Amino acid sequence: MANSSNTGVDMDPDVARRLFEEGATLVLLGVPLGTEVGIDCKSWQVGPRFKGVKMIPPGLHFLHYCSVNSPSCGGEVGPKTGLFLTLRPRDVLLATWDPEEEDLDFSASGNEEEVSRVRATLRDLDPFLGPYPYEVMRKWVSLTDRLSEEVANRLQPLSGRVCAFSDVIPERQLTHTKDRAEQPRNDAACRSMKEGLDRLPRMKPREGTEMRFSVVPEKKYPPGATPAEITQCSLDQSYALEAVLQEHHQLQPLDLLGELQFAFVCFLIGNVYECFEHWKSLLALLCRSEAAMRTRTPLYLGLVAVLYHQLGEIPPDFFVDIVSQSNFLTSTLQDFFQFAGGPGVDATLRKRAEKFKAHLTKKFRWDFDADLDDCDPVVVELPEGVAAD
């Protein structure tokens, strides 16, 4: 990124001119040599001339970076930090590197006088600004087309930073001798893993650093449900899906797809494992809601498109290592394809689901027609006071 005299791709001259005139600029000053900096789906190591990124298409973007120790100190790469930015045409966003926090400080962007000064010197800065990686723009848009600025701001931590490693603190501040005395002692060998874990202090995310995802209810059935209703709600999770939509996306139900994209991007690019778990949770809820599939056709047509692009951006062997644990993805999508082919489902949705199934079968060699744990019993939780006969 040290030399920004060309984009590195064959860009249409009209597009290049428009991006140069209308694109936003990120001026990032003082970023140490070797720091890994990226925007959206591409990253680089900072060279000695780097001072930012230019020609950024207006819209939502994900800036991410990792501090790197000097080669003399081992050259280790720190955990990734990212933040979502919404840029307008000709925006100039200014940040300086804080060496103590190893983070970018955007406070200068609130100083109109400073921003105006930088804007006036953009032509002088131009040789030090790397062009936006135009070749990944189509990929980025396909991964975030349902993710609005409002949804991204609502989901990301109040701190404004998406961090690969959670910033956690003890649930109990052991400031007094009495508090410490009540803690389990660590001077004896543990007899089990559980005992070892119980001795560790309980931790919680530092306030303002936690993701603000929709809460998927643990109990997928309504209060006072009978055992038969609990079983039905476990097989068809439409009640739980409607509860999530009512609580978190009542005005715009399709924003749930934006949340699915947010979680996926934060995992794929930001390396946040918590977001992968939330992606799985939302996906399972959507794919196992049979009744909702008949009443919320736009939501499920959008889901097919979202999954098509998400699964197309990761290599097949990725699933061998992570997603295929307990056949999660194949069993979840198998339920989806079964319900999508059922009575009462919109004909367009049924056809798109069939094409998507054929695509995945060809790409990943998955067999969605095989019996997956077909004989396993459905485990349900009985309400309090209800006993099994």
TrEMBL record:
PANTHER family given for it? A1 CISTRON SPLICING FACTOR AAR2-RELATED (PTHR12689), PROTEIN AAR2 HOMOLOG (PTHR12689:SF4)
The name under which this protein is listed is Protein AAR2 homolog
- Gene behind the chain: aar2
Q: Which source organism? A: Cyclopterus lumpus (Lumpsucker)
Q: Where is the AAR2 C-terminal domain?
A: 213-369
A GO term from the CC aspect: spliceosomal complex
Q: Which family does it belong to?
A: Belongs to the AAR2 family.
Q: What does this protein do?
A: Component of the U5 snRNP complex that is required for spliceosome assembly and for pre-mRNA splicing.
Specify the superkingdom.
Answer: Eukaryota
Instruction: Please give the Pfam families that the UniProt record associates with this protein.
Output: AAR2, AAR2_1st
Q: Which residues form the AAR2 N-terminal domain?
A: 22-157
Keyword annotations of the record: mRNA processing, mRNA splicing, Spliceosome
One GO biological-process annotation of the entry reads: spliceosomal tri-snRNP complex assembly
**Would the keyword tRNA-binding turn up in this protein's UniProt record?**
no
Presence of keyword Metal-binding:
no
